[in-house]
Amino acid sequence: MKSTYLKISLIILFISFSFSANAEIKSITKKPANPIAVKWNKFVDDLLVLSNQLTKKIPHYEKHRVGGYSGKPKFYNETKYFSTSSNTVTSIVQWEVANKNTIHSVEVFLRNDQGQVTKDFSASYLTTHHNAPIQTLITLHYYNKGLHGFRVFDASHERIYENCKGTLNNKKVYIDLDDDYGELAEALEDAKGIMSTPEYLACFGGRNVDKSRLNIPNI
């Protein structure tokens, strides 16, 4: 009887030790980094590099201001970089006032020879948390005579919004597809829907997108 009791006690002790050891191992094991957070933070770093490259490639002048939000009116220092030759904005960079080396938001514009924006990259963080940007946007712009359309993606290359305004054959065109309301997903699934219309094709040239156009270029 004593022998049986001893065996049971040893088994219970072994199981208890195993649970304790496993709990200890779990507590010191590092959690893997969120891949989206890593990708989106790199997106911000790459935008800062692009802004620096563009503003040093040709002469620029700067405009500065302090801005913020309700309750935090002086949250960031903003610098706008203007091309000296065209007076157009190349980039807008905001750094936190309290933490001078902490980026708050960045936006970079790429333009064609006519000065029109062809691509617009932007990212911004919350005022309270800085683990990853709260928003990343890649906007592709399309111009066709009286039409101006744009498509918006996030840094993971997910299409989130499309808009086109203007005139085609003397008729007003207004296309607005928002992924938040399911309009964009429905349009992409409908082979004979709005994306097959002459207006949409005139705005965007088709429903497909060359994903390589979403990459941040090396200048």
Would you mind describing this structure in some detail?
The chain has helices spanning 2-28, 35-57, 183-189, 198-204, and strands spanning 60-69, 72-83, 89-96, 103-111, 117-124, 135-144, 147-153, 159-168, 171-178. The chain has 219 residues and is α+β, with helices and mostly antiparallel strands. It folds into 2 domains: 1-30; 32-205. The protein has a 9-stranded antiparallel beta sheet. Strand 3 and strand 4 (103-111) form a beta hairpin. The chain is globular. The relative contact order is 0.10.
What characteristics describe this protein?
alpha+beta, about 220 residues, globular, 2 domains, nine-stranded antiparallel beta sheet, disordered N terminus, about 35% strand
The number of strands is 9
Overall tally of structural domains: 2
Mean pLDDT: 88
Query: In order across it, which strands form the biggest sheet?
Result: 1-2-3-4-5-6-7-8-9
* Main sheet: strands, sense, barrel: 9 strands, antiparallel
Distance separating the two termini: 82 Å
Give the overall shape: globular
Q: Could you tell me the radius of gyration in angstroms? A: 26 Å
Q: What class do helices, strands and sheet pairing give?
A: alpha+beta
Question: Helix coverage percent of residues?
Answer: 25-40%
Percent strand equals 35-45%
Give the count of helical stretches: 4
H/E topology pattern: HHEEEEEEEEEHH
pLDDT under 50 segments (min length 5)? 1-29
